[in-house]
Design brief:
About 50% of the residues are buried. The chain is globular, with a radius of gyration of 17 Å. It is an alpha+beta fold. The protein is about 20% helix and about 20% strand. The strands form three sheets. Strands 3-4-7-6-8-12 form a six-stranded mixed β-sheet. The chain has a four-stranded mixed β-sheet with strand order 1-13-5-2. It contains six helices and 13 strands.
Length: about 260
């Protein structure tokens, strides 16, 4: 698993961006696939999530994820829910110790947040739609509502698709520039005429820094380019594979 110094909380906060290694799944899902939305054996996915929860020091039933919909919907969590009751959202915040907020991704950017002084944490699923739609801002606002301060919030952007791997269509730059003219710098021309390569983690970091956060860090890992360590939706599509695993990123407050 990958950790970022920016999220270290002196024992008050534990976090991890898990790689695909160290689980029980096999084949295209090998091995730490934590996504029940894949075609993997649900029993193996449950075991993988239990392995991840154990590494975070929480009970498996207290590791929660949402049914992610590429939105700016953010929930304030007071108690864990059952998997079959997972709400539709792309961000979560809490001030309750012992609950692990989890994000599933296979190229989208998992982003974890912590204000250790206020003992408030957050997690967001950052695909391009959610990032453009404001999921990062909504997550920070929900943390502030629990007592966090932007200047104390530290954010870590986990492994995701990087610019060299992320070709997008001609409509993308204008869509982003319509909300922020500074977005142009996150697009460079691709080899295919009229297409571009998009810097998703750079764009997310830009949006977070505009909020005045205390620190923003990027794991700087390209999920598409590293099949040994990461699942990737885009890589699976390019290879003609029918499915793909999902990696977990999670954060929790100590007791």
């Amino acid at each position: 698993m990958i950790t970022l110094d920016v999220l270290a909380g002196g024992g008050a906060v534990r976090h991890a961006f898990f790689t695909r290694e160290g689980g029980v799944s096999d084949g295209m899902f090998a091995s730490l696939n934590c996504g029940f939305g894949s075609g993997d054996d649900p029993a193996k996915v449950a075991r993988n999530r239990a392995i991840a929860a154990e590494r975070l020091g929480v009970d498996a039933a207290r590791l929660i994820t949402c049914y992610q919909i590429h939105s700016a919907e953010v929930l304030t969590v007071a108690a864990p829910w059952r998997r079959e009751d997972s709400p539709r959202a792309d961000g979560m915040v809490t001030d309750r110790p012992g609950i692990a907020l989890g994000v599933l991704a296979a190229d989208c950017a998992p982003v974890l947040f912590a204000d250790s002084a206020a003992r408030v944490i957050g997690a967001a699923h950052g695909g391009w739609r959610g990032a453009l739609g404001g999921v990062m801002e909504a997550t920070v606002a929900a943390m502030v509502a629990l007592g966090a301060m932007p200047a104390r919030i530290r954010a870590g952007i986990g492994p995701c698709i990087a610019q060299p791997s992320y070709e997008v269509g001609p409509e993308f730059p204008g869509r982003f520039a319509a909300t922020d003219a500074a977005s142009d710098r996150f697009f460079v021309p691709a080899a295919r005429p009229g297409h571009f390569r998009f810097d998703l983690p750079g764009y997310i970091a830009h949006r977070l820094r505009k909020l005045g956060l205390g620190a923003v860090a990027d794991a700087a890992c390209d999920t598409v380019a590293d099949p040994a360590r990461f699942f990737s939706y885009r890589r699976a599509c390019l290879a003609g594979e029918r499915d793909y695993g999902r990696a977990l990123a999670a954060i929790t407050l100590g007791g």
